[in-house]
Amino acid sequence: MEKYDDIINLPHHESTKRPKIPALDRAAQFLPFSVLVGHDAAVRETARLTVNRMELDEIRKEELNEHLQLIRKYLMQKPQVSITYFVPDAKKEGGAYFTITGTIGKIEEARHQVIMENGTVMFLLW
Question: pTM for this one?
Answer without folding.
Answer: 0.60
